[in-house]
């Protein structure tokens, strides 16, 4: 194992309080299903958090970063040159304003993000594949339990039963 990967592993094992706090919100695809990795070797550096799908790097800065501004600028320029976006947050903000930080990260991962589109195999017509319909990607505007079909069927059935029983009662009453 090369030294950069060993260093990344050591950093994962010695996380700061701010890194552990933020990782609770990023791990397990909790943020809109985006996968994050922590302490990832990339371009000769170890980045704090990486979302490969959104090409976003998150860096947490402590007080030592005030003394190494030029280094951080070179590092950010190198990562941006590879097509990544870099978002930086102070450790104190993560520890004291975690909801604001997570909301800002969410904004970063979703702004300008276009999910990869499935590739249609050649020769298959749009909307059909081997006689079966392809599923639409559109989400329903309301939960299934509130959709018009279910409500209409249950209401119309109960109304028609009520009207049948009412008409039966009225016709029975007329015959007597």
UniProtKB/TrEMBL annotation:
Entries under CDD domains matching the protein: Endonuclease_DUF559
Source superkingdom: Bacteria
Region (Disordered): 136-176
Residue ranges with Low complexity bias: 148-170
One GO MF term: endonuclease activity
Keyword entries, A-Z: Endonuclease, Hydrolase, Nuclease
Record Pfam families: DUF559
Record domain DUF559: where: 4-109
PANTHER family: BLL0828 PROTEIN (PTHR38590)
Protein name per UniProt: Endonuclease domain-containing protein
Gene source species: Lysobacter koreensis
